[in-house]
Amino acid sequence: MTAPARTPTIVITGATSGLGRITATELARQGAHLVLTARSAERAEETRTEIQASAPGAEVDVFLVDLTRTADVRRTGAEIAERYARIDVLINNAGVHAFAQRITADGYPEMIAVNYFAPWLLTRELLPVLTATPGARIVNVGSEASRRHGTLALPDDLTDTAPFTARGSSPLYGKSKLLDIMFTLELARRIEGTGVTANVLDPGFNVTGLGRELGFAAGLERILTRLRIGDPRRGAGLIVKLATDPSFAGQSGGYYSVRKDEPLVPIRPADDAEWRARLWADTERLLDAPR
Is the confidence at residue 18, as pLDDT, over 80? Predict the structure, then answer.
């Protein structure tokens, strides 16, 4: 008699909207026990209700966290690690494209704090539990916007709070996603042999990523949706595939896209092992420094 399959526990950030919400709903339909992080308790409850309506009986736990605050990310990671003996998948999906500079309470640029520092810290907090879970996977959401990042300067870019305009925001967003790609590939090297895999993906252009701060975004999203341009289900499908598909078991250190079947070669310096190691060291030194 075949033993029943164990319910996987999957942690997802940024699951109250966009790609994350679609991804979470699909994973719940597949029978996953979801652990969601959210900033708003109201949005979290709306998301839980929607998921459970689509997947009756789904287990959905929520941890409230402000991803702009490093101490809050550490606290939440520690709470999740303490509560769950096993974590099968960590999906670092949350992200922001800001159209003006905002400085966090820690003094960091918001896009770097949310898009890069938060997944870096959360992953480190959860890594002991992931390592204790056979076949665990880490899936990070990067972007081909990384190819328009300009020039990377380490460690200065990690703390650069210079103002910028909406037009100047794109290279800085791309830079934050470049850091995600570099982080993932260096992480894959560091966890080699533990049984945990780490991969990163470009979800393609999605109408849900147009930016909450643009006044015309909602109307443009409706138009593009009717034209079937930027369907977020494609990007969500790739996240789900990397998180659960048996074909990716044991596959680590890859950068994937909805546009191509084979792994992408990231733009320099993400393709350089020395740069990736340097980024890790600079990040660790910065985030672990006494404050």
Answer: yes
